[in-house]
Design a protein that fits this description.
The complex is a heterotrimer of chains A (290), B (316) and C (262). Chain A is mainly alpha-helical. In chain A, 73% of the residues lie in helices and 2% in strands. Chain B has one domain. In chain B, strand 2 and strand 3 form a beta hairpin. In chain B, helix 4 packs antiparallel against helix 5. Chain C is an alpha/beta fold. Chain C is built from eleven helices and ten strands. The radius of gyration of chain C is 19 Å and the shape is globular. Classes of the chains: A mainly alpha (290), B mainly alpha (316), C alpha/beta (262). Chains in contact: A-B, A-C, B-C. Chains A and B meet through helix 4, helix 9 and helix 11 of A and helix 6, helix 12 and helix 14 of B.
């Protein structure tokens, strides 16, 4: 039972990160039909920037805030300089652009920072809590709490503000949104910025547990995308559920089956989702006219 | 004779490359140049294979390096654990890749666009994970050594010998690709890329043709992978990794999809560039990323078709 | 002789019945037209007959064989070909190459021979090129043979699709709004092309909005409205049918309405 709880919580923790990455994917995909592979790099930048800013002497909370801000700007720049100029390219070309961007950011991080692993001090100290026989890091709860807060804030924004409604409108029908006077380019730019912020926050929160380095972004992006596919790409609820489910699947299979193939779980899930249920758990399909 | 008619002559492009390949070594001051050129030709073979899938049939694969890995490790494992002659291993690797491509391609090729892209990516990464984890066979993340190729009872050691082997193989591969281009299968593949609906209404079995392109391209890439492991004498799992796959795709797109000469140009740029920028070695990833972005934003046609269009005075 | 038969075809998308119990019988070497207001289900009918959709109910028989639910390429191999309302041209290939693809079902080489480019492939390519040139000539596109399809004007592209479909030597040719966007001269040329096709023994099924063309060329007309058969008959019978007039114009039959349809 204790073991089960252990896996449960670690699955929930890493699942929260996947959920946030998947949410970022979904936000951008909904606004622009682009699958943004640089999503993982946003998480990496959040963690790495905080580490290096803190090392430079800036107080941790401010370092974290600045790191998120910088990453947000990077997200917007990605849209403005790489995606927007190619807006009429095929879906595959656009994925390649974001892959290029993620490789570029990875390379940049390599040069500006270094190639080592780095950590951040956990918010409530390193002593694990003992719940039901399982040892749970307080930081796990921080990650969970942070993720939940982000999701709720996002929901409030979409549901309660005019700008949020404009985002939905753009997602549903870009042409119609344009005709109604919504500046869709700004909306898409906003979605990139917000996704970057979400990713960066996830990075800051989870670094005390999983550490960070210049190349954590790639695998995260792939797993986040798997989670988004599982939940149904285009569905925010699906992204969150998909992320948590994927995290659980990973943790339980690592614990009960084989920890060597932990990383493979996400890809098996991805392939299964793509082949067996392309709409995912919550997604809606599109109809093509001949 | 105007430029366009000249270029339309079927084997012109290949003849030009063959000439380059034959005369280039006269300019090589050291073995190092043979090495780089051999690498270019090996990757050009792989890129030619991927081009059949992406350029002709129009199906994207972000995981084709997985077949590099299968080809490479077939040689490594076969030679090390079964004392099998490398040539046999190359063939076995190609056959295995073909089988895997057949099995994986059937379901995966039903997907389109970015779903296909990500599914192939997943495949490539899974191959890497398996290669990394089955350390008992593969030597794990540090890889394993590969015995030297032995031809006619003599070990093939020098970079110059490999240069000629790679050159011959690439030219054969490119000729095969060119043959395919000017054949019913080739036309069917190109048609599928432009309109699957119309193609099927003309009697083309779209799924079967796509699968054929996938399998053939896997075989090309597998052979290139086998060469890589024999050439380097050592192989690690990241030969089948995500970055390798992206490099392959970059070569194909850079050179120009669907052109026969393109893969050679693309491979040349992607392989030679890091060599010339040895000073900027740390910046390799940044440069690759920038090239990829720049390509897809500004020069989606690739170098060779754009050049060809300019020479023919035609706007694309 | 009956070449194509559709019996009680029904298909629905979402909750909408696009075709509801549609039946028709087409004789060989005739022009069989399908008309009806927008949204009547004409293209859907074509899509079902040509295998793009499988019907919910009903059967399709081609030359006596039950081909219901067959994939398009299997139907094409049995002599069914079609053009598309929204031009499915291979834009990146030349006009000639487009038509050469049309010869695919008559080409007999396998992938291995193609890879090795055995002499048989070489000879076959020559034959294919010849046949393609002939097809282009029939629709008057010979000078455009080596031009990239994407550079050709709309009217030429419509003719190119017909040439491509003709190159496959079909028994039944489905033309989906071939006169759309064509001017008077182009439509008259089209009239001539269709007549010559039928004279060669091909059965032509036509979906068209251009009533002048339909009335001039059809042997039989099948009228669809809201997915259902309204009436079927000769040109004269359909033209004077009050229900047809009403379906098109939504008003009670008047003289001017009858003139508009005819």
């Amino acid at each position: 039972m204790a073991e089960f709880l252990q896996f449960f919580f670690s699955g929930l923790t890493v699942g929260s990160v996947y959920a946030l990455v998947a949410l970022g994917f979904t936000l951008i995909y909904n606004a622009s039909d682009v699958i943004n592979f640089a999503q993982g790099e946003f998480v990496m930048l959040g963690g790495m920037l905080t580490v290096f800013l803190a090392q430079a002497g800036i107080p941790l909370p401010i370092a974290a805030f600045v790191a998120v801000a910088i990453t947000t700007a990077v997200g917007f720049a990605l849209y403005r300089f790489a995606v927007e100029p190619a807006r009429d390219a095929t879906a595959v070309s656009l994925i390649m652009i974001t892959i290029g961007a993620s490789i570029f950011l990875r390379g940049l991080a390599q040069v500006i920072f270094d190639k080592r692993f780095h950590s951040l001090p956990p918010l409530f100290g390193p002593e694990p809590l003992h719940i039901g026989g399982a040892a749970i890091l307080p930081q796990s709860l921080v990650v969970l709490g942070g993720a939940t807060t982000v999701v709720m804030l996002l929901w409030l924004f979409i549901d309660r503000t005019l700008l949020g409604k404009a985002v939905i409108a753009t997602a549903v029908n870009r042409l119609a949104a344009l005709l109604v006077g919504i500046d869709t380019r700004r909306i898409v730019g906003l979605s990139f910025a917000v996704s970057a912020a979400i990713g960066a926050i996830a990075g800051v929160l989870v670094t005390p547990i999983t550490l960070t380095s210049y190349d954590v972004g790639t695998l995260l992006a792939l797993k986040g995308f798997a989670a988004a596919m599982l939940g149904g790409i285009g569905s925010a609820v699906g992204a969150v559920v998909g992320g948590l489910v994927l995290g659980m699947l990973e943790a339980f299979s690592a614990g009960y089956v084989s920890s060597k193939y932990k990383d493979a779980v996400a890809f098996i899930v991805l392939l299964a989702a793509l082949l067996a249920m392309p709409r995912g758990l919550f997604g809606r399909g599109k109809v093509e006219r001949v | 004779m105007n430029v366009r008619a000249l270029m339309a002559q079927r084997y012109v492009g290949l003849t030009v490359i063959a000439a380059i390949v034959v005369f280039l070594p006269f300019f090589f001051p050291s073995a190092y140049y043979y090495r780089v050129a051999a690498l270019v030709l090996i990757f050009a073979l792989a890129a030619t294979g991927l081009n059949l899938l992406m350029g002709f049939a129009g199906q994207v694969s972000l995981g084709h390096a997985g077949f590099l890995g299968i080809g490479a490790y077939s040689v490594a494992i076969g030679a090390t654990y079964f004392a099998a002659p490398p040539l046999l291993c190359i063939l076995a690797g190609a056959a295995l890749s073909g089988l895997v491509a057949f099995g994986v391609g059937r379901p995966i090729l039903r997907l389109k666009g970015h779903y296909l892209a990500v599914a192939t990516l997943g495949f490539g990464v899974l191959v890497t994970i398996v290669l990394t984890n089955e350390a008992a066979w593969t030597g794990g993340p540090d890889g394993m050594a590969v015995p030297r190729l032995v031809l006619f009872a003599r070990p093939v050691r020098g970079a110059d010998a490999w240069y000629w082997i790679a050159a011959a193989s690439f030219l054969i591969g490119a000729t095969v690709a060119q043959n395919l281009s000017d054949s019913p299968t080739g036309r069917a593949l190109k048609a599928i890329q432009d309109s699957e609906v119309a193609s099927s209404m003309l009697g083309i079995d779209v799924s079967r043709q796509k699968l054929a392109a996938f399998v053939i391209s896997a075989v090309f890439v597998s052979v290139a992978g086998s060469y890589l492991s024999l050439f380097n004498g050592h192989i690690t799992p990241d030969i089948s990794g995500f970055f390798r796959s992206i490099e392959l795709v970059t070569m194909v797109v850079l050179g120009g999809m669907g052109s026969i000469v393109g893969p050679f140009v693309g491979a040349a740029v992607v392989v030679v560039l890091p060599q010339t920028l040895t000073v900027l070695h740390e910046y390799e990833d940044m440069v690759l990323g920038l090239i990829l972005m720049g390509l897809m934003i500004f020069l989606r046609q690739g170098i060779v078709p754009s050049l060809a269009a300019t020479l023919a005075g035609r706007r694309t | 002789m009956t070449i194509l038969e559709a019996a009680h075809l029904s298909i629905a998308f979402g909750g909408v019945r696009a075709l509801d119990d549609v039946s028709l019988v087409v004789d060989a070497s005739v022009v069989f037209s399908i008309i009806g207001p927008n949204g009547a289900g004409k293209t859907t009918l074509f899509n079902v007959i040509s295998g793009l959709y499988a019907p919910l109910h009903g059967r399709v028989r081609l030359a006596g064989e039950d081909v219901t639910g067959f994939a398009p390429h299997r139907l094409a191999r049995r002599g069914l070909s079609r053009t598309f309302q929204n031009l499915q041209i291979f834009f990146r290939m030349t006009a000639l190459e487009n038509v050469m693809v049309g010869r695919h079902r008559h080409e007999s080489t396998d992938i291995l021979s193609d890879l090795l480019h055995l002499p048989v492939v070489h000879r076959q390519n020559r034959g294919t090129r010849e046949a393609a040139r002939d097809a282009l000539a029939r629709v008057g596109l010979s000078e455009a043979a080596n031009r990239q399809a994407g550079t050709l004007p709309y009217g030429a592209l419509k003719r190119l699709e017909i040439a491509r479909a003709l190159a496959s030597e079909p028994k039944v040719l489905l033309l989906d709004e071939p006169a759309a966007g064509c001017n008077l001269v182009e439509t008259q040329d089209l009239d001539g092309v269709i007549r010559s096709i039928v004279k060669d023994g091909v059965t032509v099924m036509l979906v068209e909005h251009d009533m002048r063309l339909v009335m001039n060329i059809s042997d039989r007309i099948h009228v669809l409205a809201n997915g259902r058969t309204l009436v079927e008959g000769t040109v004269a019978e359909v033209r004077s049918n009050a229900a047809v007039v009403e379906a098109y114009l939504g008003v009670h039959g008047t003289n001017e309405a009858a003139c508009a349809v005819g």
